[in-house]
Design a protein that fits this description.
Strand content: 15-25%
Number of strands: 16
CATH superfamily of the largest domain: Alkaline Phosphatase, subunit A
Strand order of the largest sheet: 8-7-4-3-9-1-10-11-2-12
Shape: globular
CATH class of the largest domain: Alpha Beta
CATH topology of the largest domain: Alkaline Phosphatase, subunit A
Number of domains: 2
Helix content: 25-40%
Mean pLDDT: 94
Structural class: alpha/beta
Radius of gyration: 21 Å
Distance between the termini: 33 Å
Largest sheet: 10 strands, mixed
Number of helices: 12
CATH architecture of the largest domain: 3-Layer(aba) Sandwich
Length: 453
Amino acid sequence: MKTMRRVLLAAAVAAVTVGATADGRRPNLVIILTDDQGYADVSANGGKDVRTPNTDRLAREGMRFPAMRSNCTVCSPSRAALLTGRHPDRAGVPGVIRTQAADSWGWLSPSVPTLADCLKKAGYHTAIVGKWHLGLEAPNLPNQRGFDHFHGFLGDMMDSYTTHLRLGNNYMRRNGETVDPQGHATDLFTTWACEYLEGRSRAGEPFFLYLAYNAPHFPVEPPAEWLARVTARDPAMPALRATNVAFVEHLDAGIGRVLDMLDRTGLASNTLVAFASDNGGSLPHGQCNDPWRDGKQSHYDGGLRIPFFVRWPGVIRAGSSCEYAGQTFDLFPTLLEAAGSPLPPDLDAVSLLPALRGGEPPAPRDLYFVRREGGPRYGGKSYEALIRGDWKLMQNDPYSPLELYNLRDDPQETRDLAGSEKKVFNELAAALRARIQRGGSVPWQAPGGAAPK
């Protein structure tokens, strides 16, 4: 196996040099994805009451993308898009994959290659630490979808960050082995990521680490000492907000440990680190998406706008910013091109690599969003949104009329123009229907209609 990997690595290096740095090395690749972290729950994005020095460091030493949006308002579809470079419905995951089959609304298509698949073929060692949320059984376990190493949580959310159970079930795994670690999940994922990085520093081959925290997704459970620190600093802060701020600051400290490990091992100088949240913050849980309207589950921009930073020493100019309005899954072709790996066909995402290198960002394009959900409000149906230039057509449940906003004139989305801008409405509605038809060609349940167990 080691011999074969060396052969693949040598072939990849000989075949492509597009992604090499100035000294000819291919970069290591790290994605840090947080869960439900609000746009303004990062001080680099204007958060006034939260302190995130380590996440801010990525923005300060890299490039900010203040206009980036997630691919969906909730977890599984965003993750499916990130790992496939396709819109969620074209990856088979228009909705949340849950541990209860009757309430599961997606099935990751086995025919769609993942980012880990592609990088593994290019000679990279591939790992995921943290939250998977794209399947509980074959063929959609992490080690079957391109990852050499998995240490984390298969399920959707934890009932508690200290028990790690979901509805009484243990979904913690190290590759195929069930594990029962002790400690706060954020600390565990940080430690496991650091252990992986330390090991790769001695391995002599490039790697891809997908570090997917489940914080600050509810239940919002910061360690007691972190909450005490925040309340002492600002006694007037409402309790709900203080709890979330403490949770985010604890998470930020974990990110700092990971960045420190990159520094200590000498990996940092040749490692591209991308940071993003999977969707907007949850307002009922004290998260903040200012200045955008609404939050998680919503197609208003508070549910879609996310913190998004990329650091690549020697390539990205420190402290730079790009106003390109893209989506999280643009990291898929970006990282493959940075690695010098060919892109698979039929992608929806576009590469940010020219912008990272100081050139022109990608041309503007339509941004498409979809979410399928159950319960009385959604009925198992989907609802969508489409952004074209300054215009946004959207709905927030399948039974409500479509709304139309001009984001340039009305960035807070307060004036619905669906009744007065009929030409724009009809053009965007036709484009949206075409997207829905295209996504409908991919099954979102396992063969035979059986949802994942």
